[in-house]
Each structure stands twice: as C-alpha cells, then as structure tokens.
Amino acid sequence: MIVGITIITVSITVNQVTKETFSKNNPGLDAVVGAKGSPLQLILSSIHHIDIPTGNISYQNARKIIKHPAIKSAIPISLGDNFQNFRIVGTNKTFLKLYKANLISGTTWSQPMQAVIGYNVSKITKLKINKFFVGSHGLIDTGDVHAEQPYKVVGVLKKTGTILDNLILTSLDSVWNLHSVTNKDKLEITSLLLKYKNKTSSFSFPRLINKGTNMQAASPSFEISKLLKLTGNAHRIVDYLSILIIILSFLGILFTLLNNINERKYDLAVLRTLGFSRWKLFSIILSEGMIISILGSTIGLIFGYIVYESMYYFSIVGRSLELGQLNFLNDLFLIWIIVNIIAFITCLIPCIKVYKQNIRSTLLNS
Amino acid sequence: MLKCENIEFNVDGQNLFSNINLNLKPQKDLLITGPSGVGKTTLLSILCGIQKPTTGKITYNSIDLYNLPENKIDEFRGKNLGVVFQNFNLINAFTVKQNLEIAVSAINTKKSIPFFNLLDRVGLANKSHIKVANLSIGEKQRLAVARAFVGDPKWVFCDEPTSSLDDKNANIIANLIKEESLRCKASLVLITHDSRIQTLIKFSKILKLGDEL
What we know:
The complex is a heterodimer of chains A (about 375) and B (about 210). With about 375 residues, chain A is of the alpha+beta class. Chain A has two domains: about 30-220, no CATH class; about 230-365, no CATH class. Chain A is about 55% helix and about 15% strand. In chain A, α1 (about 1-25) packs across α10 and α1 runs antiparallel to α11 (about 330-355). Chain B has about 210 residues and is an alpha/beta fold. Chain B has one domain: P-loop containing nucleotide triphosphate hydrolases (Rossmann fold). Helices cover about 35% and strands about 25% of the residues of chain B. Chain B is built from seven helices and nine strands. In chain B, α5 runs parallel beside α6 (about 165-185). The two termini of chain B are about 15 Å apart. Classes of the chains: A alpha+beta (about 375), B alpha/beta (about 210). At the A-B interface, α9 and α12 of A face α2 and α3 of B.
C-alpha cells in the first residue's frame, strides 16, 4: 500500500507540476526562431531554459523577421553564460513586459553590464542591488569566468512563479561586449521569441522560415504537447504499475484479515459468548482493516511528497521547475479517498464472514 | 425468573429432545442431568441464547430471549448470564487477568471490577499475569468460573464443571460455584452427568432430560 501510493503520488505530482510549469513559462508565444536542429531543444532552451540551444542565428537575419508583416512582437534572446547555474539572458526590455514582471527594488538596465535578477536568483545567490558578480562560460557553472567584466545588479524582480524567477536578464549589448563581438554584421543571438498578428500565420510562417532560410521556426505548444504525450505514456505505465501494487495491497489486506479471523475464529466466538455483539466484532475487524489502509495510504502520500520535494530540490531540472499552487493536492486527496473506499469495501468481506459466524458450531469444532 | 415453554430441538430432522418445560424462581438452583449424548450441552446453549431452539419459548423475567434481535441476545447474555463452558472457552493467548478484562469490556459496565479479589477467591491471585495456555486444567476451570461471575450475573450456567477433575478439585470448584452464586444472588443451572455433584451442591430442582419437571 505504502509503495503503491508513494509511486502514484510522485507520478501525479511530477506530471502535474511539469504540465503546469510548461504552461506558465509560455506567456502566449506562438513561435521561436533559432538555429536549425531539434525543434523541441530550441523550445526547451529558449522558453523553459532546460536544454542547451541548437546554436546561434545572425542578428541581421533576425531583424528581417522582426520586421516581417506577420509578426506582432519579436523578442531576441542571447544565451551563453551563467552565474551559479542561473542563466544570464541577453534580451530587450520587452521580455519583462512579456512576463508582466515588476521590480521589487531598483530599475531596469540602462547600459551594458547591468543586470536585473529574478526572485529566486536573489534569494539563493544573496545578490542585491549594486552588488557585482561575474558570469561564467556556458550554461552550467564550470568556474571559467569572465572576471574582467563583472555585471552590476540594478534591479530585483518580484516573484512571478515562472522561469523568469530563475533568470538573470541583461541587455543584448552586454552579451556581445562580453564576448568581444564588435562587428555589427557578425552579431548573433540565440533565438527570437515571436507572437503572430494573426493565428493563421502559424501554418505559413514556420514553412517560410524552415524552407527559405538556414533557421528554423518551432511552435512551443506543438513541441511541448509532443513532449507531454511522450512523457504521458511513461507516466501512464508508472500509474498502471502503482495501481497494480495498490490492488495487490488490497488483496494483502483482504487475505491478512481473512487469515486473522480464521486463526481467531475461536476467540471471536468466545467474545460472542461473553456478550460482544455481531456488530461490535464486525466493527473491530473493519477498524483493523481500515487502520492498515488509512495508515498505509497516508504514509505513502507523505513519502511520495517527500520524494517529489527531494527531486525538486536536488535535481538540476529543479532549478527550472516552479511548484505552482499545489493544485494536484486535490487529485492526491481524491486518490486517497478512492483507495480507502475500496479498502473499506474489501474489508467488508471478512467482516461479513465474522458477522455470519455460527458461534456454537465454531466452539464445538474448536 | 427463568421460564422455558415446550422447548424442542431437532438435528438434521431428528428430534434430540422435546417438551422441555422449566420454571426456575430467583436464587433457586437447578440440576440438569442425563447420560452423554442426550442433548444437555445443546440445552445449555439454547438457554444461554447461543443456539435457537426448533420450537419453544425462553423468558427471563418476562423478556422473551429469542424474540430479541440477534445483537440484543448477545448483549443480554453478557449482562445477565454467566456461563462456565465444558471446555472453558478461555482465550489462550491472553493472560488470566486479560480474560477477565475482556469479559468486563463485553458487558460495557462503568462499575470498577475488583479483579484481585475475584482472582483471590478462586486462588489465582498470584497467576494474574500468566497466559491461560500455561495453566493447569484445574486452574483453567477456576478461571472459567471467575469469568462467569465477573459481571455479577443473575443466572449462571455451568456445563460439566467437575467431570474432568479429581475429587479434591471437584470439591473446590463446586464450593466456588456455590459461594459465588450466593454472593451474586444468582440462580444456578448446572448440567452434568457427574454423580458426585449432588453430594457437593444441594439443588432446588433436578431435571432428568426427557422428563418433565
């Protein structure tokens, strides 16, 4: 029972939190344009900041896309460095508007090498306004730092419950300066986050980019639903496995109680002769079964939540996941109730056996 | 008052006994005797509400026993009747004291039971924490008697309480049953084929199974 509920709790929480996180991290973006490669990788790296980017694209080409009549808004982002595993994102100030971000303190950047940090970044790294920090090469902290050009924190963002909380934002110029790119023709960015003027462009525009340029356009909703479908199958298998374990635990409770009452049928008959009514014995056996079930399912629920919390805090992916509003607690509570209702029904079998016991024949046979 | 009217019991279509009529006044003692296999234990089960008769009526102070719902019969037995079974029907995994405690919890009484006094009277005060499985036959018999009287019953039924005991232990048990019955002001119904019992206890009435009283 404990194992089954633990597995199903972890499965549900991970599944729900993943879905919720993916949904929250995308503030209505229609497409992401980046270097050719895996479209899912492009989405994961540019919106959810989990994977590594597929490469860079020319800023000149990106500017042509920004000016395209089908595009309502386009936000360039440039990745490449991190501070204590928090990604430093070169972008423009529209990025903040996209996530409806507000500042707790300070202001946005006004010149290169100024940075605005997300809520979690501030909380974990203890960075504050006017403090300096140096970014390190790559998206994971390797110790290889840009010591000669530190960033200055000029603003701290309020909590948004999105990936923004885990990002360090700066201007595109900061990223280009840091990597000594001075030739304007050779400027590069990682990707462009796009919103269409008209949803009908979702069919024609990606085709235009994918066939006519050396870039690719990927749809966040399409790629993420593909990913969730894949992980959903895995979750389903895990769920079936946990349901099987729970069914086995019901059988375990049933046979334990049947075995118990079989071993104690003489004692139960004696209790009847002493004045215990059928209902009293019925309720004693039912209580025994339900105590096993309620304890097992509750401990399983707690274990499952501990496992999930551990995964959340100790995995690298955890940096990109936000716990959300614990909406899945309702689902877990519902499962807990269903499990205990089935356990109750299962327990009725031995209870009815006790209720129907013929005390005289039991005592005579014993 | 215990009253039985036209009690009849059939097993697999065969009549075991019929036309049993009893009328036992308060604090009077009844001996039911007869050879083995005549249905003495079955009759005790019927009187105690454990086995429903094929026909007939049993009333305790005008309460029709088998007219009560099943659960009420169990409760009535727990609160008003004390039974010493032939094979004791003790819970072997429990200690001496626990066997008395479980009997008290069955009758749901708020009255505090002086277990030590009771065990002292039956000579088991120093064995209260010993498991029943480790007691001798005589000790089990005494514990069964103590348990039957734990709730101060108004009617006490004993099934062959002395038949497996030697003269000395039979004397102890018979005296114990008589003393406890007097203490509780209970009517005693004793079933036996042991002829020694009539020399140990003086009964108000004797029923030879098959004969009318």
